[in-house]
């Protein structure tokens, strides 16, 4: 039996502040384009596996994970 069969709905809690920044990330976005507070929040989203950090041409980019 798979875990998805046991858990019908699984939601990850995110704060209002995290939600606002999460919704602004629509494509590969440079992490350096965000201010220090936003970068801190994005790192929280990375820990929650909602956002991924990608390195491309020596630049750190962030992108939403598929749901």
Q: Nutshell version of this structure?
A:
The protein contains 3 helices and 3 strands; from the N terminus they run ααβαββ.
Task: Describe this protein's structure.
The protein has 67 residues and is α+β, with helices and mostly antiparallel strands. Helix content is 37%, strand content 21%. The chain has three helices and three strands; from the N terminus they run H-H-E-H-E-E. The chain has helices at 3-6, 16-24, 36-47, and strands spanning 29-30, 51-56, 59-64. A hairpin with a 2-residue loop joins strand 2 (51-56) and strand 3 (59-64). It is globular.
Please count the helical segments: 3
The Rg value, from CA coordinates, equals 14 Å
Compute the average pLDDT: 88
Order of helices and strands: HHEHEE
Low-confidence stretches: none
Q: How much beta, percentage-wise? A: 15-25%
Query: Terminal Cα separation, in Å?
Result: 21 Å
- Main beta sheet strand tally, sense and closure: 3 strands, antiparallel
Describe the secondary structure blueprint for this structure.
Elements: H1 3-6, H2 16-24, E1 29-30, H3 36-47, E2 51-56, E3 59-64
Helix pairs in contact: 2-3
């Amino acid at each position: 039996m798979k875990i998805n069969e046991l858990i019908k709905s699984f939601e990850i809690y995110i704060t209002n502040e995290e939600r606002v920044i999460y919704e602004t990330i629509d494509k590969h976005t440079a992490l350096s384009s965000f201010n220090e507070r936003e970068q801190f929040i994005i790192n929280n989203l990375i820990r929650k596996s909602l956002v991924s950090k990608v390195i491309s041409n020596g630049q750190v980019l962030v992108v939403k994970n598929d749901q």
